[in-house]
Write a structure and sequence with these properties.
The chain has twelve helices and nine strands. The protein has two domains: about 130 residues, Arc Repressor Mutant, subunit A (Orthogonal Bundle), CATH 1.10.10; about 150 residues. A hairpin with a 2-residue loop joins strand 6 and strand 7. Helix content is about 40%, strand content about 15%. It is α+β, with helices and mostly antiparallel strands and about 300 residues long. It holds the Pfam family Replic_Relax.
Length: about 300
């Protein structure tokens, strides 16, 4: 059996299901009557960031895995959400959640747009499920989910902004292609940053050359470039490479390693290294240089 086989879990369509009925304004209105603020939050996040795991959505909206599963399963039955996972042995992979046909119709209705055909929504989910960049997207989303979860229990901390890759490209006129952008605030101090998610699939030379584009950004967008790497060993190798090739003028760089951060407070913690400096800083303590000012 193919270890990478895609498992879709699509609720069988019945005569009374929303997907069998034409997705009219009355159908959408009926679903809205059962909608909660938390449901709306999840739809907005999925619309912006495409997919999250069950654990991601637990951290973003529930806090309890049991409550999350119950609500997600109900929304799946109502075809507000769709889900998929890939066949793995041993064990099973967590569900990856996306907008379902009814959820996509609700989002479109909120924008005053034509509601998409259910088949088109299913096709989009299938393309995402088979995308070679899926794991990269999930890792990027997981980074911001971790910050959001930290802020829930840390007084004065907040993820004030979270942009996806498309929003970053638009803001920078495609000069750079960061995986995400955030503004992390603690105690009144705002630290804007560009996120470069690294899964260890590119050479360190290729990773370092990304900084050239950031040097071309004007001061208004000269935020620190935060590289998130899979291991502290790869992080150390990147620092060694940067010490040889240098960092472009006007660019601030910080690095964190996922394995190190797992035991030291996650991306909000004291896990960030600066080139040429000893020790580690929290995300809130990263220097914002080059005249960069949060314009949010």
């Amino acid at each position: 059996m193919d270890r990478n086989r895609l498992i879709r879990d699509i609720t069988p369509t019945t005569a009374n299901s929303p997907a069998r009925a034409r997705l009219t304004a009355s159908v959408v209105a009926a679903e809205l009557a059962r909608f909660t603020p938390r449901d709306r939050l999840m739809l907005d996040l999925l619309d912006q960031h495409s997919t999250f795991t069950t654990e991601h959505l637990t951290d973003l909206a529930f806090g309890s895995l049991g409550r999350a599963r119950n609500r997600l399963n109900l929304l799946h039955q109502r075809e507000i959400l769709d889900r998929f996972r890939h066949y793995r042995r041993p064990g099973s992979q967590s569900w990856r959640w996306t907008l379902g046909p009814v959820g996509a119709a609700l989002v479109a209705a909120g924008r005053g747009e034509a509601m998409p055909r259910p088949a088109a929504v299913r096709d989009a989910t299938a393309r995402l499920a088979m995308s070679p960049r899926l794991e990269h997207l999930l890792a990027t989303n997981g980074f911001f989910v971790a910050l959001t979860a930290h802020a829930r229990t840390a007084s004065g901390a907040r993820l004030a902004r979270w942009w996806n890759e498309a929003a970053c490209r638009e803001a920078t006129a495609n000069v750079v292609r960061p995986d995400g952008h955030g503004v992390w605030t603690v105690g009144g101090r705002a630290v804007p940053f560009w996120l470069e998610m690294d899964l260890g699939t590119e050479t360190l030379s290729r990773v370092a050359t990304k900084l050239t584009g950031y040097a071309a950004l004007g001061p208004r967008r000269a935020y620190p470039v935060a590289f998130w790497l899979p291991t502290a060993a790869r992080e150390a190798n990147l620092h060694a490479h940067l010490s040889r090739v240098g960092v472009p003028d006007g660019v601030s760089v910080a690095t964190g390693a996922d394995d190190y951060a797992a035991a030291h407070g996650g991306p909000a913690g004291a896990v960030w290294r600066l080139p040429g400096h000893a020790g580690r800083l929290t995300l809130a303590d990263l220097p914002v240089s080059g005249g960069a000012v949060w314009d949010g």
